[in-house]
Amino acid sequence: MLSFRLPLYPVILLSLIWLAIPAQAASSKEDADAQSGAILFRDKGCAYCHGPALAGTIKGPSLADIRKDKSWPPEKMTDHILNGGPKMPPFRESLTDDEIAQIVTYLRAAKRPVPPPLPGGSSAQSAPASATPAPQN
Description:
mainly alpha
C-alpha cells in the first residue's frame, strides 16, 4: 500500500492562516462599527448628556466603564437606547437598528476610537431633538 505523507509544517502553517482570515474580517467589521459608533455618539447628541469623553455630565451618567459593567450587557444597552430610561429619552424613532448596534459596539470596545474632527472645527454636542422637551403653552 502506498502512503502519501505531507510535510507537517506547511499544513499547520496553512491551517493557521486559514483560521486567522475570518477572525481578521470579524475584527475589521467590529473596528469599523466602533468607528461609526463613535461618530454617531458625537453626531446624534449622545455626547450632550454623557460627555464627549464618556465621563458624564450633570444631564447623564458616565459611560466610560460601561463595557466592564456586567449589569449592562449589549442587549440591555440596546433596549435602553431604544426605549429610554428614567432620565433618558427613547431614540427608537431617531436611530436605526444598525446605528444602535454601532453605538453599542463603540461603548463596548476595549480601545474606543476617536471620531474624526468635524469639518470646520464645529462641535456636534448640541441636544438631539428627541432629548429636547417640547415647549409648554
